[in-house]
């Protein structure tokens, strides 16, 4: 019942926002970004509420930390400027920023709960390493440095936003690796998180595909076409990892292994 209520509330909210939407011609599709953020927040909420076991076996903490880093960094770009905020009237009520902040709070709650439960039960995902998260962060920072946009004349905002985009693109890497190794069973109730994360990535990719189609020539004339190549590459990686996660998740749940938890500590 709770799941139906959440989906129903989300659908009504989307319809209300779309009905009240007002946007200039150059921001006619900005609401897709807000929709992508909303889908991801709904996925995080489903994950926090619906995991059938407190240890949430098969769920990568490093992936959740990557999401936290990506979303906190993205929120920071909206604090000192409006360059990365949807330009429609949802900006008047800070809807996009509110969704991003809510997502951070929900994921942080889930990470703290998982960490406490797994430590107390001596349960963890044995093959996960903090080096995975560090490596992803370093790679995202390097790529952001070379591929950031210069359209907003704000070096740190441009750098931070591109870092968050690459970081979110890589976020499901540890999760996919965990499932590929088959080291743990999966919590079947995380299916909503898997599906909504994929939906969010598809909407995000659709937005940037549309923007690229409409504005590539303009940016190409200014010598800033590298940004579009990079953003589409990040989108492709994000969708590919999300799709792989959904496939492996479905495959693992059908396999139904006889064990449930991994009795290894994280390093």
UniProtKB/TrEMBL annotation:
GO biological process, one term: protein transport
Keywords recorded for this protein, A-Z: Endoplasmic reticulum, ER-Golgi transport, Membrane, Protein transport, Receptor, Transmembrane, Transmembrane helix, Transport
Species, as recorded: Symbiodinium necroappetens
Keyword tRNA-binding on entry: no
Main location: endoplasmic reticulum
InterPro entries: ER_ret_rcpt (IPR000133)
Membrane topology listed for this record: Multi-pass membrane protein
Ranges that cross the membrane: 33-51, 93-109, 130-147, 159-178, 190-208, 228-248
Protein name, entry field: Uncharacterized protein
A GO molecular function held by the record: ER retention sequence binding
Family: Belongs to the ERD2 family.
Keyword Transmembrane helix included in the entry's annotation: yes
UniProt-annotated location(s): Endoplasmic reticulum membrane
A Gene Ontology cellular-component term: endoplasmic reticulum membrane
